[in-house]
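Write out structure tokens for ABC transporter permease.
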Amino acid sequence: MSTLKKQNQSLTKSWALGAAGIVFAVFLWWIFTRAATGNLMLAAFAPANVPDALKSLLGRGVLLSDVGISLLRLLSGLGLATVLGVPLGLVIGFSRLVEQTSAPLVQFLRMVSPLSWAPIAVALFGVGSLPVIFLVAIAAIWPITLGTVSGVRALNPAYLQVARTLGASGPEQLRSVVLPSIRPFVLSGIRLALGIGWVIIVPAEMLGVSSGLGYEILNARDRLAYDEMLVVILVIGVLGIALDTLAQKLLK
């Protein structure tokens, strides 16, 4: 009971400190916008404008649909990266020859900003959701691939030897030994890829699409609706926290 009480107290303290940090940040935000009364753009970013701007976005029915579209693109790109990244990581992890051969290319590709591929994505897929999904996948594939490689490297060879001794085939070894053993590494890579993909999707949605949170930021800017642009930015941040929290709970 004492241990449980200490855990509850620690959790309460953590929440209280987090809330205090948010209150302090909002206070600094209010001070900054109050000091910038001569600048119409910065004045529009005042905290007091958030409720009306949020009401306007919800009233026009664009915010929730944009959230749904962005999440769908994110999950599609993440799913594609997982489908490609896990097998690639398995091949690299189990084959020293493949690892040595592919290492320079992998290092090169993962160091190139995913947004650098935007012109190629548009040329290949045109405008719409496909280029956005492609860019998210390009950004997300490397954490998943490298996480899988790390899992393979950490796999105890004795487990595979026992499976072979018991007559397990290659697919059976993969299913019953390899995948369960590397699961924590793969899930950690997916969680990291989720955060990277969420960061990438906003600028990716500024490439000729007519929906999504990234598009909504550009649309608000073009209409000089800076208060609505601020609301979209806040929504992006809150959703990012929610996605990471959900990933912590599910990807264990």
